[in-house]
């Protein structure tokens, strides 16, 4: 560890001499007005906080931190210029700090380092407002950058703080070992068993518990493990024989046996699913054994059940949610019921002896693993097997040895703590309301929520119950039935978050968004939210997990992989002039600014189709008049920019591209092969972009068809046959297809194509006015072109008439169409 550098960073964090705890306590009434303030008692928030570096609420010291360490933005002297990051990125998921504490999503910090290194300089300030476990901070610290982290979740922010707070590994090892040793002396008897020799004592490694079910035919009770578990293969049988009737059953055919038990924590009788211990794995003198629980073990369990836990542990009611219903369905309604009495007793004892943040995060690492969510999987040697991203209680669960679990974690912490550097401020608040001044952040790397994929606040319930602070989910950007949040609510929250990101980021700087979702509607919500905020999306990449690198792709439909979106905040002078002139006569400047931040290596964003699409989207988002069509825009490009290989460049870029070609001994762009540049062809637009790149030189229909059919997966778009697409959009020459080369060729193709699209759109308009029912499939390019024509002609009601007849999925899955509809709604409201 660079101790001199860390010392400097820590000194920088000492904003001014004060009693920070006292100051934070005085500020709490005002901080509670900020969106995302967590749910918890003041004393618990103050106890968890380590101001100024970490506050378990919105961090009020961030502004001073920026004033002390940041470089003020000056529009007249700012010379910043970066192109999007391009390059191979290793995941690095085996790093000790990455595996230290589980979380629902994490980007390896070594992957993030590539981006931070590319976009920033030493001592720049990096932001992540959806920080999760704080990997962005870890990456920034390695590169001597400052970093601001925040998250709506208390457990996420607390992990992030500990991941970014330097602490000596040797000191931690001694402290944690002492805590564990003291608890072991007090409660190790709970994990003792009698060896089968009747004399020796063994250490229990795991206890397997099984549900007791009732036969749907005979009504008798039976232990699931006894009838459904094949001991010779270690597999659970999907079908098994009823021990009473001989009928073939599945688990779904049977109900759990329920019993009334006295819960001494709640002080009342409760209904509980009946479970029994069926197998014990234990160690004697380093040798492993198994046994069926005997009288000794049952006597220990009886002693544990009568044991009164003398330490605090959480007794939080489990609220109804999309994921927590798994608990209530199993008659589990409070947090302490998620553990056996044996494990709960030991966890509470460890918690009582933890006196530093690093101790509490050490405790947190196994809170889920040691719960009843730990499934019995005999074929897997790893002892902790809860399902990730959900709550699932199996019919056979495993009670693992607490002392072994935390002893092993001490070793992991010792390795990981040596990686941590400082320079990070952490707080809890919503990304919709960041406590950061305008134009002060040098770079943003963020991994936002994935819509409906993960219910963060629900999935963090176990961890946060032990912290005594819970997520305020009012501004949680997820799609959740119980929170009454659907796609529009998610979109609204993400848009608000990106507007905050846009506000605090310095002009001409970059935001990198790592994102994964299997639904294109959610992907569109992210992309549209960024555009609404003012960002210009420059590039979309996909993480190739098998090869461990990022390949550039066309974003259309690319939703089944981890996407990396690169976007920038426009130059301040351009933005001000654009606003003053409502975009009039600034189309050239928009294209120039967009091209200036693209790499020269001939990417699809440099094609006239993509440039026109970008310009169109920007003007619609701003609500400005569109004065160009595809032909006149092509003429604009032709008169003001240089073209090579079908890609457009500024005057300053074209020579660099020619040098690049010369260096690689290229005469043109290599043929696009499956898996290299475009991985997804899912609609007409992406098909045309792919075909344009593929036809860098003339090819026969047979050649095109073979490659196209290997990767095309058209979904929800009524597009023409491949041959028709080629004939309508490319030049046929010597029985081969090629790109248009001249202005006249391009204009000829555009005119022919636009006539066909407009005719289809007008037919669709008539259909929307005369036929009943929703329109479930359309040719999206015809719809897009028709909307464009209506927008230019101010026929906003025609846009809305068709939109009202479209199946909502069509608009949800296409951000371009949705832009026109939203713009039309605004215009109609303004007119009325």
Write the layout of secondary structure elements.
Layout (H helix, E strand, L loop, with lengths): L2 H11 L6 H12 L10 H7 L13 H8 L26 H4 L9 H11 L5 E4 L6 H8 L3 E6 L2 H10 L5 H19 L4 E3 L6 E14 L6 E3 H5 E2 L4 E2 L3 E2 L6 E2 L5 E2 L1 E6 L4 E6 L1 E10 L2 E5 L3 H12 L18 H5 L11 H13 L3 H8 L31 E5 L1 H15 L7 E5 L12 E6 L9 H4 L1 H7 L19 H18 E12 L3 H14 L2 E9 L4 E4 L9 E7 L3 H10 L5 H10 L11 H15 L7 H11 L1 E3 L2 E3 L4 H10 L20 H11 L4 E2 H11 L10 H8 L1 E3 L2 E3 L4 H28 L9 H13 L3 H10 L2 H5 L2 H17 L1
Parallel strand pairs: 1-2, 1-17, 2-16, 17-18
Antiparallel strand pairs: 3-4, 4-5, 4-10, 4-13, 4-15, 6-7, 8-9, 11-12, 13-14, 18-21, 19-20, 19-21, 22-23, 24-26, 25-26
Helix pairs in contact: 6-7, 9-13, 9-15, 18-19, 23-28, 28-29, 28-30, 29-32, 30-32
Oligomer: single chain
- Tell me the span between the first and last alpha carbons: 65 Å
CATH topology of the largest domain: Rossmann fold
Mean pLDDT: 87
Query: Poorly predicted ranges (pLDDT <50, ≥5 residues)?
Result: 544-559, 668-679
Secondary structure: number of strands: 26
Structural class: alpha+beta
Strand content: 15-25%
Write out the CATH superfamily name of the largest domain: Vaccinia Virus protein VP39
Largest sheet: 8 strands, mixed
């Amino acid at each position: 560890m660079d101790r001199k550098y860390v010392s400097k960073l820590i000194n920088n964090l000492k904003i001014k001499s004060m009693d920070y705890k006292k100051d934070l306590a005085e500020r709490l009434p005002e901080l509670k007005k900020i969106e995302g303030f967590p749910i918890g008692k003041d004393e618990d928030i103050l106890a968890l906080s380590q101001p100024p570096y970490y506050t378990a609420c919105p961090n009020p010291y961030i502004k001073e931190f920026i004033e002390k360490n940041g470089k003020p933005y000056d529009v007249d002297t700012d010379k910043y210029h970066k192109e999007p990051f391009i390059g191979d990125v290793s995941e690095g998921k085996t790093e000790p700090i990455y595996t230290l504490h589980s979380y629902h999503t994490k980007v390896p910090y070594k992957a993030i380092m590539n981006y931070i290194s590319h976009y920033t300089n030493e001592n720049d300030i990096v932001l992540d407002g959806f920080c999760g476990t704080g990997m962005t901070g870890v990456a920034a610290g390695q590169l001597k950058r400052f970093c601001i982290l925040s998250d709506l979740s208390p457990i996420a922010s607390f992990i992030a703080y500990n991941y970014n707070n330097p602490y000596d590994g040797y000191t931690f090892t001694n402290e944690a070992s002492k805590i564990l040793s003291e608890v072991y002396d007090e409660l190790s008897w709970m994990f003792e068993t009698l060896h089968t020799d009747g004399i020796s004592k063994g250490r229990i490694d795991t206890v397997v518990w099984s549900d007791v079910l009732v036969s749907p035919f005979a009504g008798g009770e039976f232990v699931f493990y006894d009838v459904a578990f094949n001991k010779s293969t270690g597999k659970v049988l999907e079908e098994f024989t009823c021990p009473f009737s001989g009928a073939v059953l599945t688990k779904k055919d049977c109900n759990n046996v329920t019993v009334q038990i006295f819960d001494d924590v709640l002080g009342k009788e409760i209904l509980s699913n009946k479970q029994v211990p069926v197998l014990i794995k234990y160690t004697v003198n380093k040798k492993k054994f198994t046994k069926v629980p005997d009288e000794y073990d049952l006597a220990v369990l009886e002693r544990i059940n009568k044991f009164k836990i003398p330490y605090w542990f959480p007794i939080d009611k489990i609220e109804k949610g999309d994921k927590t219903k798994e608990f209530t369905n199993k008659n589990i309604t409070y947090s302490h019921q998620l553990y056996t009495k044996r494990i709960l007793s030991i966890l509470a004892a460890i918690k009582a002896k933890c006196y530093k943040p690093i101790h509490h995060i050490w405790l947190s690492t196994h809170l889920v693993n040691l719960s009843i969510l730990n499934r019995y999987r005999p074929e897997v040697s790893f002892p902790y097997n809860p399902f990730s991203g959900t709550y699932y209680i199996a019919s056979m669960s495993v009670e693992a040895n607490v002392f072994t679990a935390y002893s092993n974690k001490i070793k992991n912490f010792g390795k990981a703590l040596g990686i941590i550097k400082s320079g990070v401020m952490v707080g809890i608040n919503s990304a919709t309301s960041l406590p950061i001044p305008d134009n002060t952040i040098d770079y943003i790397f963020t991994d936002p929520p994935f819509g409906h994929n993960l219910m963060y606040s629900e999935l963090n319930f176990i961890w946060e119950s032990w912290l005594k602070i819970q997520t305020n989910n009012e501004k949680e950007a997820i799609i959740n039935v119980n929170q009454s949040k659907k796609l529009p609510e998610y979109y609204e929250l993400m848009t608000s978050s990106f507007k905050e990101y846009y506000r605090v980021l310095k002009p001409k700087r970059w935001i990198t968004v790592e994102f994964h979702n299997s639904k294109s509607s959610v992907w569109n919500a992210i992309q549209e939210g960024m555009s609404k905020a003012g960002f210009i999306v420059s590039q979309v990449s996909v993480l190739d997990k098998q090869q461990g690198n990022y390949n550039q792709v066309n974003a259309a439909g690319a939703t089944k992989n981890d996407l990396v979106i690169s976007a920038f905040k426009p130059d301040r002078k351009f933005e001000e002039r654009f606003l003053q002139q409502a975009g009039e006569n600034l189309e050239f400047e928009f294209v120039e600014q967009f091209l200036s931040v693209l790499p020269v290596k001939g990417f699809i964003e440099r094609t006239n189709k993509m440039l026109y699409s970008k310009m169109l989207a920007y003007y619609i988002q701003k609500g400005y008049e569109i004065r160009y069509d595809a032909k006149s825009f092509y003429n604009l490009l032709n008169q003001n920019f240089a073209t090579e290989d079908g890609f457009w460049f500024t005057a300053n870029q074209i020579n660099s591209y020619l040098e690049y070609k010369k260096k690689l001994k290229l005469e043109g762009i290599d043929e696009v092969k499956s898996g290299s540049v475009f991985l997804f062809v899912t609609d007409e637009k992406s098909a045309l972009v792919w075909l344009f790149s593929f036809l860098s030189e003339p090819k026969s229909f047979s050649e095109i068809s073979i490659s196209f059919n290997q990767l095309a997966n058209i979904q929800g778009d009524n597009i023409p046959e491949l041959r028709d697409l080629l004939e309508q959009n490319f030049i046929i020459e010597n029985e081969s297809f090629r790109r248009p080369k001249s202005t006249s060729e391009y204009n000829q193709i555009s005119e022919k194509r636009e006539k066909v699209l407009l005719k289809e759109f007008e037919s669709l308009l008539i259909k929307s006015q005369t036929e009943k029912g929703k329109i479930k499939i359309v040719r999206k390019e015809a719809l897009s072109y028709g909307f464009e024509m209506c927008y230019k002609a101010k026929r906003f009601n025609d846009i809305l008439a068709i939109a009202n007849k479209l199946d909502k999925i069509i608009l949800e899955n296409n951000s371009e169409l949705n832009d026109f509809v939203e713009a039309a709604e605004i215009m109609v409201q303004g007119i009325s």
